[in-house]
Sequence to fold (235 residues):
Amino acid sequence: MNQYQQPTLQFSFFPPVIKNLLIVNLLVYLAQIVAMTTNAGGLAVVLNAMALYPPGSGEIGSSIFGGRNVPIPGFWPWQMVTYSVLHSVGSFSHILFNMFALWMFGMQLENTWGSKRFALYYFVCVIGAAIVQMIVMYGSSVPTLGASGGVFGVLLAFGMMFPNQQIFLFPIPFPVKAKYFVAGYGLIELYSGVAGTMDGVAHFAHLGGMFFGFGLLLYWMGRLPFKPKSQGSTF
Fold:
């Protein structure tokens, strides 16, 4: 067992990393609602600075979180992490589905891997998704929000860790194995990104989270030219 794999001794429905991610995302979402409903300029400035603006976006524009005459902050390095705790206030389903999927699939991963490894994996996926999105959206003044890049990475890991576990998807009347669910979701995202369907959805960020997550999993498994310092059983 290597330094990252420290599984919990007892299964928890709300392991530490998952629980804290849910709390932080909910608190920030409430802050967004306050900013939108009260036009709180100072709060809007802070929230705007947390959204992911790609390099070359400039500093001309208005706040997307409320407040008047709040400038676009342009790109800052911390946005590659902080964007993941922001969600669309106009669609409650955005944060609902992201947090439900994070809990549903991440809970089992964190219990299996341990909190340290799960946290590392999640934020690698979040940052990887940001990198891909910045490349695709270079020069755009449209910010990216949401935990979906990290969630899609978690989904990929779940499919690789538990490939034959049955998943029930409404309205499909029969269970689907995790490996087929993940493969199908990835293909849909690839098609949607290339075809430009479902405007407003960061498809390439989703794929970026999966891609970087897959690379980290291969590294931990010792299947890349450069190997982990200490080998251990990951799967």
